[in-house]
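Running this now, will post back.
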Amino acid sequence: MKEEYFKWYSPNLSREVEMLVFGHAGYPVILFPTSMGSYHENKDQGLIESARWYLENGLIQIFCPSSIDKDSFYNKNIHPVHRIRNHVWYDKMLCHEIVERVKNNTGSGKVAVAGCSFGGYHAANFAFRHPGYVSHMFSMSGAFSIKSFMDGHWDDDVFFNSPEDYLYGLNDGNLWQMDIVLGTSNWDICLDANLNLSKILAAKQVDHWLDIRQDQKHDWPVWREMFPHYLSRIKFF
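Update: finished.
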């Protein structure tokens, strides 16, 4: 299984970004880490290993960028307006420095996005903010509101990065073409968040799969089960 390490200076973030890429060819999958996780977290926790068959057979390539959660949502030492602004710059980095460079690796001209826990938020938020870029969105135990990180601050940047709020008004036709999976479990601390997002999507008649696993906790064992299952939904050829 091919593994490559990349490090570059991001003009959008004004800092260096690190990323691991797994696989030699195939459909591009952007895989986000959990809260404040590093670019190698998904490898360390066995999520990459769970997708080995797809990687070794050239069906997918997985791109694992670093997060900047410590300097955005989780940085209580700066004002919320700066927290969300840092995240907006992170979003621009993802768009212009990663997704736009890899989305044409296969014929669809789009990418799949995925993530566990807060990575599930990142996957959903990126997909819904940029539905023209995303063919598949696999959120595993994600939550979809950022109000709790903003200490009461509210502006357009907060609104348009909180899927529970902006999805109501989203009318991009690509949303109805996207393959959306909300993975959760009956013991998941984020179960209610997934039930709520499912209701919002259903009200808009957006097809999706609310996958509620049984007797599983908000942790890596269930995510290692989910991830390869969800990857099988991608049409590779």
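The chain has one domain: 3-231. More later if anyone needs it.
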